[in-house]
Amino acid sequence: MSRLGAAVLLAVLGVSAGVLLAMGGPSGVRRPEDRTAPPAPAPAETGAPASVAQPAGSAVGIIDMLAVLRAHRRWPDLEALLKKIDALQLRLANPPAPPPLPTVDVRRELEEEADRLSATYREELTALEDQAKRRLEAYANDVKAEQEAHLADRHKQVNTDLQRMVEAKRDELQRELEKFEVATMAEYRIPLLNLRLKADVVGINTEEEAKRLTDEADRLIKERDGKIRARAQALEQQLQEFQKARTAEAEAQFKALIASLEEEGNRLVREKEAELRAELESAAKERERLLNEAIEERRKLVVGGTEEQVRAAQERYARQLKAEGARLQAELQAVMEQRFRLEDSMVAEIKIEIASVAQERRVDVVLTRVVASVKTADLTQDVIARLRRQ
């Protein structure tokens, strides 16, 4: 991690939305060519407190870049690459010793050489298998996350459509109920008016006759209200059945979508697994070929006996060592490039999250070293939390 650019500067220029981040150089990491002349340490690195000129009233935040990088979801991948680089550099710095001249037991020496080379290649294959497992797991997680996001969007859309259909149906049934209520009120209005006119015009002579007219009016009112109430209940039942049917349809569609996405996800993971397995098989065959060639070269060396054979074997060894060194250098270069791309990607994502947190916390300047005489806000955990939500 000492090679990662850990200095982060975030400054707000003019408005709060304009944020500038600088992380130890344009790319955020120091390339091998940059290490030939390491830069002079910053004030905070020499022990003297740094001072920053800032506008009056500006807010300052600090970031623990090491903690943020270690919290990044792709830190295990970067750490694995760093370990692989160290292993390759160690192998380059410690080439295998020249094979000894045959003495007594040639077969035993060949077997020992084969065991040594086999152990080396097995270690390489084990490392490739572990890397393939991590790649497959990361790929499966990406597929799962994408499908879950799609399901969430679809679920939200289905609920919205269902609610809109139910509301439209409720409005339709409400209009129907209102229309029925108006018609029913009109139907009973004349009989009720006749009873009232009879009481007003003809007159009521006895208490018994008055009670009879009142009971008849109550009966009509109850009958009218009963019809309206029954119609309302029937329409409510119709609405509930409509809602239940539409809900069942939506659930069936959603379950079918889940099954389809699950099948698609499994297919993608199986294809990726087959691809990685093919790569491992190819690597195993290549190492088996190298092992056979190395054993054959070794056999030719030990079965010699003359100085010419020894010199020829030594020349072959030199060529083999050079070829192996070139192969390791090429592999190291490829891994270094992969590491730099990964570092650049991680740093770019961290820059974005730092900018977002700084804007949310209204911080104008973000530093990665302690600043003297300035009250600072530690944004580390906020940035880590945002990274873990990705």
Topology readout:
Elements: E1 8-12, E2 19-23, H1 43-46, E3 60-62, H2 65-71, H3 75-93, H4 106-202, H5 207-302, H6 307-360, E4 365-367, E5 376-378, H7 380-388
Parallel strand pairs: 3-4, 3-5
Antiparallel strand pairs: 1-2, 1-4
Helix pairs in contact: 2-7, 3-6, 4-5, 5-6, 6-7
* Biggest sheet: strand arrangement: 2-1-4-3-5
The level of helicity is over 70%
Oligomer: single chain
Low-confidence parts lasting 5 or more residues at pLDDT below 50? 1-57
Evaluate the radius of gyration: 41 Å
Gross geometry? elongated
Query: What is the string of helix and strand elements?
Result: EEHEHHHHHEEH
Overall average pLDDT: 77
| Total of helices | 7
List keywords for this structure.
five-stranded mixed β-sheet, 390 residues, mainly alpha, 5% strand
Structure description:
The protein is mainly alpha-helical and 390 residues long. The protein folds into two domains: 1-102 and 307-390, no CATH class; 104-303, no CATH class. It contains seven helices and five strands, in the order ββαβαααααββα. It has helices at residues 43-46, 65-71, 75-93, 106-202, 207-302, 307-360, 380-388, and strands at 8-12, 19-23, 60-62, 365-367, 376-378. A five-stranded mixed sheet has the order 2-1-4-3-5. The protein is elongated and about 150 Å long.
Quick structural summary:
This protein is mostly helical and 390 residues long. The protein contains seven helices and five strands; from the N terminus they run E-E-H-E-H-H-H-H-H-E-E-H.
